[in-house]
Amino acid sequence: MSSKSPAGEGAAEIDIIEILARIPHRYPFLLVDRAEEYRPHESIIGIKCVTANEPFFQGHFPGYPVMPGVLIVEALAQTGAVLMSKSLDVDTRGKTILFMSVDNCRFRQPVRPGDVIRMHVEVLRHRGDVFKFRGRALVGEKVAAEAEFAAMVVET
Question: Which letter, b or e, does each residue of 118-143 get, where b requires 16 or more Cβ atoms within 10 Å of its Cβ?
Fold first, then answer.
C-alpha cells in the first residue's frame, strides 16, 4: 500500500485503493473517497465528493436533497478507521475497526449534491487498540457537522 508525501511535508495522501484495503466498507456505504495529510497516531483529512447519484438522496429529501447527518458522522468514523488501520498497521484479514461511541455531536449546515466534504479527524487519545477522536466535517470553510467519537480494533 503506497502513500505519497508532499515535498517538504511529513503528511501522506491515501488513495481509494488503500482505503479499500484498510476498511471493510463498500458501495453504497463507503463514505471516504481519499484522504490526505495523514499523520500517524495524530490526524487525517478524509475527502468525500457528494454526488446527486448517492442512493440516500432518493428519499432524503425529494426536491431538496440533503445528506443525512448520521451519514456525515459515519464518514467521520470511517476516516478515523483509516487513520487507525494505517497507524496500527491492522491485519484486516482477521481484524476490523468498530465504532464505539459518539459524543457532543452537532449538525451545523446541510450537505447537498455537488459538495465536497473535508473531514478533519484528530486523535484526542489512544491506548492500545482503542482511539478517541474529534472530527469536523467542512464544506468549504463552513462546519457541516462535528463530533467526538471512539473506535476499537476487534477480532473477526
Answer: bbbbebeebeeeebbbbbbbbbeeee
Per-residue pLDDT of the chain (156 residues; tens, 9 = 90+): 444 444 334 579 999 999 999 999 999 999 999 999 999 999 999 999 999 999 999 999 999 999 999 999 999 999 999 999 999 999 999 999 999 999 999 999 999 999 999 999 999 999 999 999 999 999 999 999 999 999 999 999
Name the pTM for this structure. 0.93
Distance CA 106, CA 126 (A): 23
Report the amino acid identity of residue 146: E
Residue numbers annotated as active site: 60
Which of 138, 24, 135 has its CA nearest to residue 82?
24
